[in-house]
Amino acid sequence: MKFTLALWLLLLSLFSYSTELRVHELRNYGALHYLEFYMMEKDGVPVKAAFKALQIPKCPFNMRLVGGMSAETMNELREFYRQNYPDRLDAYLKSPAGKTGSTIKPLESVIPEALASTTLLREINEELKDRKCALGDISFEKFVPSVEDGFWVSDIYIKVVKYAE
């Protein structure tokens, strides 16, 4: 059985173009569960496979996504800004190098919305929905906007809440 699951996870990972996940830890802090994944450009497994391999705790719990996003996810973030906040993006792009602080703040203020729009978080939300959970508050450690390389967000923190039917 373990060999079959490992083979299935390997096959699924061959067809993933989004950010992949690798389980880091699942533990309790008091009564609240805490689930941590590494985000991987490759060498992880797709979201569906990661959730299938785990017994996800009951809601509510906290989730942390650590590490690097795939180029696809970074490009999705950049496209989100191009489509939804072009004025904020233009202000950032036109600011002189080294003087971008005040123009990054308006971009940072909508990062939770931008992250929720990515394939990565939509897939996580679908897996959570199957378990009667949903994405709650989303926060992050660091935001690095780059038009050439995509928009990078590290250490994403998600409060997972009960799904309101």
Explain what you see.
There is one protein chain. Helix content is 41%, strand content 32%. The protein has 165 residues and is an alpha+beta fold. The chain has one domain. The chain has a five-stranded mixed sheet. A hairpin with a 3-residue loop joins β4 (133-146) and β5. The chain is elongated. Residues 1-17 have low confidence and may be disordered.
Key attributes of the depicted protein:
single chain; 165 residues; alpha+beta; 5-stranded mixed beta sheet; 7 helices
Rg over C-alpha atoms, rounded to the nearest angstrom: 17 Å
Q: Spatial order of the strands in the main sheet?
A: 1-2-3-5-4
- How many structural units, i.e. domains? 1
Distance between the termini: 35 Å
Number-wise, the strands total 5
Q: Total number of helical segments?
A: 7
Structural class category? alpha+beta
Mean pLDDT: 78
Q: Helicity, in percent?
A: 40-55%
String of helices and strands: HEEHEHHHHHEE
What profile does the largest beta sheet have? 5 strands, mixed
Q: Topology, pairings included?
A:
Layout lengths: L1 H12 L6 E10 L2 E9 L6 H7 L7 E7 L3 H14 L1 H9 L6 H8 L2 H6 L2 H11 L3 E14 L3 E13 L3
Parallel strand pairs: 2-3
Antiparallel strand pairs: 1-2, 3-5, 4-5
